[in-house]
Design brief:
Elements (H helix, E strand, L loop, with lengths): L1 H7 L9 E4 L2 E4 L4 H4 L2 E8 L2 E2 L8 H11 L2 E7 L3 H11 L3 H9 L5 E4 L4 E10 L12 E10 L3 E7 L6 H8 L2 H4 L3 H35 L12 H18 L3 H9 L7 H67 L14 H22 L4
Helix pairs in contact: 4-5, 8-9, 8-11, 9-11, 10-11, 11-12
């Protein structure tokens, strides 16, 4: 409860100061701590970024919106509780949503509050690697939390991937789209994140194809040679991480595309259908990856079992062959005074010939039956 009271408390004013972060400078007169995590802060009116000739703090940006209209878009990167408290108070953000945004590690979701929407996206980045190993990191995840209001849009980003700077510049080149308000930015971020899913899915498919080829490619004697099961298991873990990012996003995208919402422009809502369709397609791919890896893992384990059985058959076959001279030598190694053939002139060559003949006969029979 103390944290919630702190989030709702007003931030004390301080002397003016300027801070540089992510290429943009911000006035921290309102809250020195709040600006340290701000990557960009801008006001858009009729789809055009307002040039104020000086950096704006979030407080000043909102004052400008109240005076001249439009909406403010604030981007933050991994803010602390103290850094986000002033912005949360200024825009009246719900304490529960603020807590989620600060702590991160949230599952994708859409939550509606009185005057805002809180949306969580998991960003996925494919980690390039020369060869898949048992310790290879295939996908790297991050998070983007979005607060959508009538006159504001706030993004809170966690992780080293998923920068929105290029997306902001691209939207600024399409003023007719930005003129639709914060919901247009929400759609652009959702589309950007899901497009990343599609690219990662294609790259993961290549890794799975490589593992599948190694598992079923013929070895020296024409049988599948298999591969290290730990590599398959590692890839399966990475796919499960991918799945945890995609699967929970299905329902939020369906809600945004099908259910009318006060904060979503009807013209923009139509475009969410395309995003929802892409999420569903990627989800089907990821589920297919998971099932395929299960099959590959089982096939690899079956091949290992078959290889062990082959080795045991060979060992057993050679043991059967060696048993013949062992038996003969054991018989003639007994210390009896009266034994046949002991004093026979041709006893030794006959016994050796019979022993070799039996061994060769057993070897031929076992080889014909596939034991050797």
């Amino acid at each position: 409860m103390s944290m919630i009271r702190d989030l709702r408390a007003a931030v004390r004013p301080s002397r003016p100061a300027l801070r540089q972060d992510g290429g943009t400078t911000y006035d921290t007169t309102r809250d020195p701590g709040a600006a340290s995590a701000v990557v960009d802060c801008a006001v858009y009116r009729d789809g055009v970024r307002i040039d104020t000739h000086k950096p704006l703090s979030p407080h000043e940006a909102m004052r400008l919106v109240r005076r001249e209209g439009g909406f403010v878009w604030i981007g933050l990167h991994e803010p602390t509780e103290a850094e986000f408290a002033g912005i949360a108070s200024e825009f009246g953000l719900h304490p529960l949503a603020v807590e989620d945004a600060v702590q991160a590690h949230q599952r994708p979701k859409l939550e509606r509050y009185d005057d805002s929407l809180f949306t969580v996206f998991k960003t996925i980045h494919y980690v390039e690697h020369d060869r898949l190993t048992a310790n290879s990191e295939v996908v790297e995840t991050g998070e983007v939390m979005c607060f959508t209001g009538r006159h504001f849009f706030i993004t809170v980003r966690h992780g080293g991937q998923g920068s929105l700077r290029a997306l902001r510049h691209r939207l600024q080149d399409e003023p007719e789209l930005l003129a639709k308000g914060p919901s247009a930015v929400l759609h652009a971020i959702a589309d950007h994140v899901v497009d990343g899913y599609i690219a990662v899915a294609d790259a993961v498919q290549d890794d799975i194809d490589e593992v599948e080829t190694e598992v079923f490619s013929p070895g020296r004697k024409g049988t599948p040679r298999g591969t290290d099961a730990s590599r398959i298991y590692q890839l399966k873990r990475e796919v499960l991480e991918f799945k945890r990012a995609v699967a929970p996003l299905l329902r939020p995208m369906q809600l945004l595309s099908e259910r009318p919402m006060r904060l979503i422009d009807p013209d923009i809502q139509k475009y969410f259908r395309d995003v929802a369709d892409h999420v569903a397609r990627v989800h089907e791919q990821v589920v297919g990856f998971d099932e395929l890896l299960n099959s590959i893992l089982q096939a690899n384990l079956a091949q290992a079992s078959v290889a062990q059985n082959e080795d045991m058959r060979k060992i057993t076959a050679w043991a059967a062959i060696i048993a013949v001279p062992t038996m003969v030598c054991g018989v003639y190694g007994m210390n009896f005074t009266y034994m046949p053939e002991l004093h026979w002139k041709y006893g030794y060559p006959v016994i050796m010939t019979v022993t070799v003949a039996l061994c060769l006969g057993i070897h031929r029979t076992l080889k014909r039956n596939g034991w050797l």
